Amino acid sequence: MYLELYDFNQKPEPFSHYTTDTLWTDPWIAQQMLKTHLDQGTDLASRRIQTIDRIVGWLDRKIGLSGKKVCDLGCGPGLYATRMAARGAKVIGVDFSTVSLTYARSEAAARNLEIEYREADYLTDDLPGEQDIVSLIYCDFCTLSPEKRRTLLKRIKGMLNPGGRFVFDVSTTRQFTERREVATYGHRPMGDFWSPDDHFAFHTTFLYDQEKITLDRYLIVGPQRRFEIFNWMQYFDPEKLSSEVRDAGLVVEEALNVMTGEAWTPETEELALISRA
Ligand SMILES: C[S@@+](CC[C@H](N)C(=O)[O-])C[C@H]1O[C@@H](n2cnc3c(N)ncnc32)[C@H](O)[C@@H]1O
Question: What is the pTM of this model?
Fold first, then answer.
């Protein structure tokens, strides 16, 4: 046990483990994630509906959604896809969570919206081409290693029509200054979020000051199953972000405050970038 806990508390190399797929597609955790997406008391998995409405509103005013072919990568339960389609966009939502897509499809049917939802991994599977807009919303870009970010940006460039826009958001270095290193342990500390079975969970937050990266590392130990989750987060400033986007051959247009759609300022915690193919 000592060795296991010793190992768990070692600080790994940034992005040395990838468990994003387990976090979103494990059948039990995916159901808890869906509840979290829809919970209007928290912004943990998705922003609250009121905020999403504001974001889709400024997106529409800035780049116009009506008649546009839009692909929303990591669409989750379709909270943005639904609203973009309601404003006249022809939307394809891509996600690898079966549970979220089942909900998204039922919402589209209930609202009589024609949205195509594809179950796929946006890092490896085929993606739709000839899009006017590609979106990647709620800081998913931050969870990827530099190599995966490069791969994804190149894939996105390939999805866009000439002049097509890529819109995405990230957490800023301002947010990094508020993170702290902590270590906690408890008996079912998040209720049955990790597992319906009895379990203990350990959580350690590591900070990488130089690189502006955090890792939330979880170890879940039950009578039958033991697993780890690595939640990486890269925090950006507009210069670093713009340079990665330019390296993929996209032209940076604007850095914005996600909440308002107005110009980015250094005290902004989340930054949206609009770029063009
Ligand atoms: C933080 S949630 C955001 C969902 C949605 N954009 C929103 O804001 O409501 C991240 C979503 O990305 C999906 N996702 C993460 N990595 C993915 C990948 N490689 N391929 C497809 N979907 C992915 C997850 O399943 C999850 O639905």
Answer: 0.97
